[in-house]
Amino acid sequence: MSVAFVLAWALCLAAGTALWLALDPRQGPGWRASALGHGCVFGMLAAAGATALAARADTAHALWRAGPLLLLMAIACVLIWRARVRPGFVYDAANAKKWTAALLGIAVVSLAWRGWTALREILLRPTYPWDAWDAWAVKSKTWALLGHHAPFVPIDEWLRHPARELYTSIAWGYPSTLAWMQVWFASAAGGWIEPLVNLPWFALWIGLLLAHYGQWRALGMRRAQALAGTYALGSLPLLDVHVALAGYADLWVAAVLGFAVLAWLRWMQRRERTQLAIAVACAALLPLLKLEGAVWLSLFAATVIYGLLPAHWRRRAFVLLLCLFGLVVAVSGLKLPVPGLGWVDIGRDYLSVPIIGRLNIAWHGPAFAGVLNSLFVQPNWHLLWWIAPVIVLWRWRTLRANAATRHLGSFLLAALGFLFFLFVFTDAASFAETYTAINRLLMHIVPSLLTFLMLLLRDASAAPADTVPRPAVRSAAV
Fold it and tell me: What is the 3-state secondary structure (H, E, C) of 368-435?
């Protein structure tokens, strides 16, 4: 492994971690895990942005063209962090009993073994999944081998201009963020070496787990519960498959949406303004990762706005908007602007989405069976979808009593409702019948679902109060 490749990773981690610390100088429980987890993911996305800005004309030297931007970003954020850092605060969260600690230790070792096997899979094979090499890696590989950026256009435009340097593919309109990230690492590796340009998926997995552990601790969960939740998240079979068979964008969407939800919860719980900014930024990134991210952005924004309304207006506003929506669609159809997708045309019996095309609305019985099989029969999620409704019923009073948890539950219910409608009532039903996109799109909301269940199971005595935290000695808790 070359010095340049190590430098590329060091710049990503430094820039991303410094950015998180500048935004969240809190030094309470889990702060190191939060900083490293978010920093790893934010740093890779920052590298993608810097490469897109500074290395379009010379992708072969992206590291040296975009690297100074990351270095300046890291230095500036460190200075901001040092100016903002203050002694932290701690929550009254007792350590786990010895037998619990031993079990959690075994779980962590098991998780580390899973990570090692996934890393070996990445390093031992080229890009393997169909969509990874047929759709997502097409742009990055083209730009890396050409040595410069070239536009991807629809096939009809490509045919009309044979003399111009244009390229086309089935996924010409997909977002390019992850492509630029792969160009960054290909430049550092010295060429298009697929195991090395796919390593970010392993780093993403680590960042996803560390960030969730750290934010769960910041939300007042005991160390034992946060570790147990981290194991539950990191051991999900389909999530691990997307790490080992690197190349899809779905794990990135799941991680960034999970980060947005965690920051939003921090803001609702303690009104930390920088956490609200992080939530907004993460949500805005979703359409830049995958087209479906536009839907999650819209639902997330609607849920946040709903939560900001006065309590006595919420139900009335929801019923009024639902009635108006149904009336307009039934009478004349409706066009709605969706960030990242454009204008979506909604009629009584169809949906027309730019890039995707027209989807006819009708009941698909076999697809309904496919959805049920995906949730409750196939071994993609362990027993997650069996356990979730049990926990909701068991902790119903906790759900009713906590506004933040209720709002998160509303978002998840809306997301599940959208997926059910998409796969059972539109032409996308074939993706549920063949068990393809249904599982990948479900994965987008799974980290947020784990956070929801963790909040329901949180010990009330360990949760922080809804008041300003009391000062305390600087904590070294992780």
Answer: HHHHHHHHHCCCCCCCHHHHHHHHHHHCHHHHHHCHHHHHHHHHHHHHHHHHHHHHHHCCCHHHHHCC
- Kindly report, residue by residue over 272-301, the tens digit of the pLDDT: 889 999 999 999 999 999 988 999 999 999
- How confident is residue 86, by pLDDT bands cut at 50, 70 and 90? low
Distance of CA 347 to the CA centre of its chain: 31
Return all residues near 339 (Cβ < 8 A) that are at least 6 apart: 284, 287, 294, 297, 298
- Are 369 and 434 within 8 A, CB to CB? no
Element containing residue 358 per DSSP (H, E): strand 357-360
The mean pLDDT value of the chain amounts to 87
C-alpha angle 176-151-254 in degrees, rounded to nearest 5:
10
Question: For residues 471 and 141, which has the higher predicted lDDT (pLDDT)?
Answer: 141
- What percent of the chain is predicted at pLDDT more than 70? 87
Distance CA 179, CA 140 (A): 4
Taken in order 176, 181, 187, 193, the sign of the CA dihedral is negative
What's the pLDDT tens digit per position in 10-46? 999 999 999 999 998 888 888 899 999 999 999 999 9
According to DSSP, the β-strands at 342-346 and 357-360 are: unpaired
* The token pair that represents 98 in the structure block: 């010895």
Cα 70 to Cα 243: distance, rounded to the nearest angstrom: 26
Q: In 3D, which of 182, 173, 263 has the Cα closest to residue 219?
A: 263
Reading across the β-sheet that carries 334-338, which strands appear in turn?
A: 334-338, 342-346, 350-353, 357-360
Position 91 confidence tier, pLDDT thresholds 50, 70, 90: very low
* CB-CB neighbours of 128 under 10 Å: 15
Indicate the SS3 state at residue 163.
coil
Contacts of 49 (CB under 8 A, 6+ apart): 177, 180
Instruction: Sort 76 into a burial class: Cβ within 10 Å, 0-12 / 13-18 / 19+.
Output: middle
User: Which candidate, 356, 357, 259, 290, places its Cα nearest to that of 132?
Assistant: 290
Residue ranges per domain, the chain? Answer: 3-87+97-248, 298-457
**Which residues does residue 344 pair with via DSSP β-bridges, in sequence order?**
336
**For residue 144, which of 169, 170, 181 has the smallest C-alpha distance?**
181
Q: What is the pTM of this model?
A: 0.90
Predicted confidence (pLDDT) at residue 148 exceeds the cutoff of 60: yes
Q: Say if residues 414 and 404 touch (Cβ distance below 8 Å).
A: no
Token digits of residue 249? 């964008």
Q: Measuring CA to CA, how many Å separate 18 from each of 43, 44, 96, 276?
A: 9, 13, 31, 18
